[in-house]
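Note to self: the last two entries modelled the partners one at a time, which told us nothing about the interface. This time every component goes in together.
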Amino acid sequence: MDSAAAKPQAKYTYQRGKRSPMFYIGKILIYLVLIVGAIIFIFPFFWMVSSSLMTLGETITRQLVPKAPQWVNYLEAWNQAKFSKYFMNSVFVTLGTLAGLLVTSILAGYAFGRIDFKGKNFIFGLFLATMMIPESVTLIPNYLMIRGSILPIPGGTWLNTYWALTIPFIANAFSIFLLRQFFAQIPNELWDAARIDGADHLRFLIQVVLPISKAPIMTVLLFGFTGAWNAFQWPLLVTTKDTWRPIMVGLWSFVQEAGPQTHLLMAGAVISLIPILIIYFLTQKQFTQGIATTGLKG
Amino acid sequence: MTEATLSSMPKKAGSSLSRLRTREQITGYLFVLPAFIVILIFGLFPIGYSFYMSLFNWRVTKGAFVGGSNYLLIFGTWTNLLITLAGIALIVAAFLVWNSAFRTIAKGKQIAKLVAAVMLILGGVVFVTGWGQMYETGNKNFLVSLIVTFYYAIGTVPAEVIIGMILAFMLYQDIIGKDIFRMVYFLPYVTPSVTSAVVFQIIFSLRETSIANMIIGWFGIKPQGWRFEPKPFLNLLGIDLSGFLAGPSLALISIMIYGIWSFVGYNTVIFLAGLGNIPKETYEAAEIDGASRVQMFRSITMPLLSPTTFYLTLIGFIGTFKAFNHIFVLRTPSARESVITTSLLIFDNFYKANQYGVATAQAIVLFLVILGLTMAQNKFLGEKVFYG
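The predicted structure of the combined assembly is written out below.
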């Protein structure tokens, strides 16, 4: 999408050659709107960072910038406010979820895209149906399931465990759908050639398909990452002790428990945002492109 | 796709071939199995189980079977529900008649339009009657939450789509720093909703020195309660309306502003992709025919973007009905039910009040409402979409 936007075709919306004063006034207006828009979009971020470096007094009198940046706020949020614990919890949960998600969605995406088996379309349809069901409907039974009230599960209950935070998310229809679309387009000649060399599906998948599927797998990883890192409602439900809280629940409970310590809260907010920002800036193109082509929120 | 895989396999039958096919089948099932187990347990099973739970007096643990009682708590009586649904059906039918009027000959057109108008009025009256009775005898909290959700959707989705389209169209011109602008606009969408909502908590605080109060102060408006203000926005402006007409509370409007802020970038990116798909030859041809820029926008860009617009409207509406995280973080006790959307109400009934049966029944009704809205939008907006 980015390359399309960069093409000079945009010029055709102007009447080339006739650069009247109106043209320049229009241009200036466009820049004005774009810049004002950018300021509105960026301001909360600026203010978040700025407040995170203030003293408590400065946050109350609402300075725009601190007199002297209080870097110690970050240390305090990291240690005393337990954001280190929350952060590490989120790191483990996110990595675990991504590892599971990769295995399940690559295998299932491959099967749906390239293997012919009975009931394939029916199962695929069932998977897709889950994408339309709002979380409110599945939340309560899932909670009972994790609590161990529906089926007996190892350990009796999974409340306050990493299992509760990862297992329900290690497969989703969206990732499978995305990979299926890509795998199905791989030319059959490749598979025929591999089969003549004696490869089975698993070897073909690992040695041929995966190396040429970096882009869609990256998209799955990006969506999986943001989904796991940003998770809030479910972790709020299944973690009752703060040792198990992931970062978003930790951030929210900090508001509830610590009261008006805005400077520490904002430092925590910045900490919770950093991994997402790093990923976003590193994979900016892939990120926006993934969303533009799939059109779905992770 | 299935055909392609099939045709790649030899058509001849043979014992070794059939063994190969069996292996193929088994491989397929094995590959799907891990995902299937997870999705079955956490995606499919809960749908049925939710319905099962909604039929019981379920509070933390399963109680007595109560049939449709949890649903009746919402509607009061089944008659109320039937009347309300009949009203909706009449309104839908009125639109269908009106639409078909444009396809028939001139004479029938007037009559059809008249019929449609009468049906619309009738449908409206029936709907309001049914709704009023539900409100009298049913669960007020749930019905109010539907209205709050509706306000939230109407207050955010059109604004998001329009601003997104304008920004995308501007960015699509020859702009220096286009990529930087796009990155900045997209940033709020990428930001975890709890993180940004926590920041907006403080921006919309009721303190006189809060950012929101500072900004309205520039325009000479006195400080407001923002997230803490349950009064309808229109009342604050001095317009004396009550009930549904009074509109959303200032607290809900604060949340709407957050919603628009965080979602516009997404629409901009999708619109930019849509603009990139419009062939430049179309513009060239129009230019040769002497079309002005406004004409080109109205006759080329708008219709060719209509599938994108439709898609974003649909996604936006579904999204607002499912929205949870940021509303949960931004709500305040003093804003009371004026910010409780249906998904929050369900969560509260479940998490705080331990009314599992009631909550599942409400969740299923919410799902049906979303489904109905999606179908209605497909029918009415979908027809106006131009797919090239």
